[in-house]
Amino acid sequence: MSPADRLLDDAVATARGTDVRAAERALDGLVVADGAAVDAALLARLTRDVGRLWPRGWQPADLDRLATRRLTPRGARLLRDAMAAQRRTLPAPVPEWFDAQLTDLGATWDGDAGWLDRRADGDRITTLRDAVDALVLVAGLPPIAALRPPPGSAGTALAAATPSGSRMLDRVRALLAKAESTAYPAEAEAFTAKAQELMARHSIDAALLDAAAERSGGPGGVRIGVDAPYAAAKALLVQEVAAANRCESVWSDDLGFATVLGFPADLAAVELLHTSLLVQATAAMLRGRRERGKAGGRRTKGYDESFLNAFALRIGDRLREASAAAAGQSDDDRLLPVLAARSDAVRERVDQLFPGTTRHRLQVRDEQGWVSGTSAADRASLDPGRPARRPVRGSR
User: Fold this and answer.
1) Lowest CB count within 10 Å: 39, 92, 270, 342, which one?
2) Whole-angstrom distance, CA of residue 26 vs CA of residue 22
3) Per the record, where are the segments of Basic residues compositional bias (predicted)?
């Protein structure tokens, strides 16, 4: 082991501990050591540890999402550098989706020489600290459900949702844009319900087409970020949108994302609708705060959380109504058996990938927030009361 590797081992070990002075002494050792040797050791360690994540279910987008949450902006940038550098070492075949994610993240590699100084902006000490923190993060990540075959693998795994640029999806995006821009809850609900109905029809057509062609592809999966504050309420929104589109959602609270399993057309609907509904829910919550302030009330965490929980549950009901309406318009006798078979396949895959899930019961801490959130999701409901609480499925 080289002197730089030993210094790096010491820095990583102390960074994981609670002795701040020891961690600073170890960092000082990296600062005064041979810079080129330290940079090479850091790059080798980061690329090695990053490469170990791909066979354990992680994807570049997953790692970047978590790095953005837990590291400094520079630390997250260093991990993107490491992913781009590690890409050079990957054996064929490297799937297109992997390179597409790196491109979306802006992960590029400009060469080994001076790579750390390119990110330092003259502050090498802080940059070394960020690099060590990135190493600690990557080395401590657990395996997660594999949704796609890793690079170098010829195996099969869950197909991912790949929304296309079809006219139908363009119409859905246009409807959701209108729902996000209007200040009138009734209009927003009408636009969103119409978008859900279009997506449901598209899903039904895809299911019947696959059945007629005897295609046996299984359910796929996507991960959706669930960020604080009010992560549990946002996870509930993902779950409600997923359920309305015949998908299943499992929330990994510690890692900050929900894994949604379903068939491709349904997953595309979940991604599109969830993104829009989160915008709508946040805007409605802010309006509710202002109204509460005018009435002499004050903004509380309990109000915001109860508002978002109620919004998620009621909008889930509205989405399911739109899906049922779309299914009711089909006169194909094969539809119900086909949809039932797909639902069974999704539940079976959830049980395979997440055998240790638990249920989290949500608490309603502010009645006014609950009523306001329900009204925001369904303006016609003048006296919503308190609907039964629904648990959010999460992984241990």
Assistant:
1) 92
2) 6
3) 387-396
pLDDT band with cut points at 50, 70 and 90 for residue 367: low
Q: Are the beta carbons of 348 and 274 closer than 8 angstroms?
A: no
CB 12 within 8 A of CB 140: no
Residue-wise pLDDT tens digits, 57-84 = 999 999 999 999 999 999 999 999 999 9
In whole angstroms, give the CA distance from residue 119 to residue 110: 12
Rounded to the nearest integer, the mean pLDDT of the chain is: 84
Integer Cα distance of 379 and 217 in angstroms: 40
Q: State residue 260 phi and psi, 5-degree precision.
A: -110, 125
Distance CA 29, CA 334 (A): 69
Longest dimension (CA), the chain: 75
β partners of residue 250: 259
Q: Are strands 220-225 and 257-262 parallel, antiparallel or unpaired?
A: antiparallel
Residue pair 161/222 in contact by the 8 Å Cβ criterion: yes
Question: Model confidence over 107-142: pLDDT tens digits?
Answer: 999 888 888 988 888 899 999 999 999 999 999 999
Q: What is the DSSP string of 310-379?
A: HHHHHHHHHHHHHHHHHHHT---TTHHHHHHHHHHHHHHHHHHH-TT-EEE------HHHHHHHHHHH-T
Cα–Cα distance for residue pair 50/139, rounded to 1 Å: 8
In contact, 288 and 377? CB cutoff 8 Å = no
CA angle 166, 170, 175 (to 5 degrees): 150
- Coil vs helix vs strand at 16: helix
**In which region does residue 29 sit, left (phi positive, over 0), alpha (psi from -120 to 50) or beta (all else)?**
alpha
Amino acid found at 158: L
Closest to 148 in 3D by CA, of 37, 72, 56, 229:
56
What's the angle, vertex CA 233, arms to CA 79 and CA 314, rounded to 5?
A: 135
What does R_g of the chain's alpha carbons equal in angstroms?
24
Judge whether 149 and 95 are in contact, CB under 8 Å.
yes
Q: How far apart are CA 37 and CA 43, in angstroms?
A: 10
Distance CA 49, CA 235 (A): 29
